[in-house]
Amino acid sequence: MKKIIVGQSGGPTAVINSSVVGVYNKAKELGIKVYGMVHGIEGFLQEKIIDLDDYLSEEENIELLKRTPSAFLGSCRYKLPKIEEAKDVYEKIFEILDKNEIDGLFYIGGNDSMDTIKMLSAYAKENNKKQVFMGIPKTIDNDLPITDHCPGYGSAAKYIATSLKEIIRDNESFGVSKPTVCIVEIMGRHAGWLTAAAALAKTDDCKGVDAIYLPEVTFDIDKFIQNIEKLAKTKSSIVIAVSEGVQTSDGKFVCELSDSDRSVDAFGHKQLSGCASTLANLVAAKTGLKTRAIEFSTLQRAATHIASLTDINEAIEVGKCAVEEANNGTTGKMVIIERVEGSTYQSRTNIYEIDAIANVEKKVPLEWIDKENNTLKEEFINYARPLIMGELEPIYKDGLPAHLIRK
Questions:
Q1: What pLDDT digit, counting tens, does each position of 246-286 carry?
Q2: Catalytic residue among 54, 112, 115, 141
Q3: Which end of the chain has fewer CB atoms within 10 angstroms, the N or the C?
Q4: Poorest-confidence range of 9-18, 132-141, 175-184?
Q5: Domains in the chain, ordered, with CATH?
Q6: Residue 3 parent element (H or E)
Q7: Can 205 be counted among the known catalytic residues?
Q8: Cα 106-197-210 angle, rounded to 5 deg
């Protein structure tokens, strides 16, 4: 390969830019030119392409990029149409690739992004195109199959556990006469990996949250209220972690109990928010207790100032692996992370067929969930704790973390 292009897609993470660093560094090591697509495949179709040498030729900028949240190249939620329905779209993509003499396309993203790689590699194979296509995993949701975990998850989990420790401290300051119930809403549509990270807040100096509700388990409103009432008999502070995607037995999202008019994105995903406020209002009405609702929203995916160093390093490694494999002719694959057995945590990269990954969702194993006590078992703690370890000190300017931005 002589020239490649890398793009970012879907919801950003605290370490998605570290995968760009991995792609760039490995490519330069191999003497390959690297371009970036601005706003993913949607921007690529508009020929929005930049030369990454303009930004990353200096080591200080690479260090800044590792500390920069969100998608440096710009993201998108653009769904490629089926090949048989819009061949002109694919023809245009390959015309642009040929025009810029690009040999390989790398896409950093989650489930829907891997679907893009799947379709592009399939079209290339059917039409004898020379380009190779590689998927690089990214998602705070941690719901890609096959890979042990996804870059982005460890940092989001670290932010969630840290913030919950601080919320618990704050909430304990009140509630002399009546308990204060604080309900914290965490991202997670169908997979509860992020909300499960609330269990990591329990440490030697913190009792942890009082209950965790994941979308893998049907949400029973009556039992939820009963649990609050039980906790209120002995506690002056109650902190609950709940996934935005928890559903009742009839399949309705809890957040829809207050309203059902929800917009959807290009992939048909219904917008979810307001679960915590819905439940807080319900608890106040049913129990008379003081309640507070907190929604982490985009904060949990943008907190690079507290990113996990393990997560950053692994995000770099999956980017490097993708380039190395593609340079050897590999296409239609996604890089995966494998956990190495041993007493201390270690990981390695490998590759896997994209067809087995695209559009498949991995959920928290039910055997890791303690349904009776509304928490996670030790198996989850042992799985997740190593992923949040280590820190990378921000580079400060004017008292705030500095970021690398596109011109």
A1: 999 999 999 888 765 544 445 455 557 789 999 999 999 99
A2: 141
A3: C
A4: 175-184
A5: 3-151+304-360+389-401 (3.40.50.450), 154-302 (3.40.50.460)
A6: strand 3-8
A7: no
A8: 160
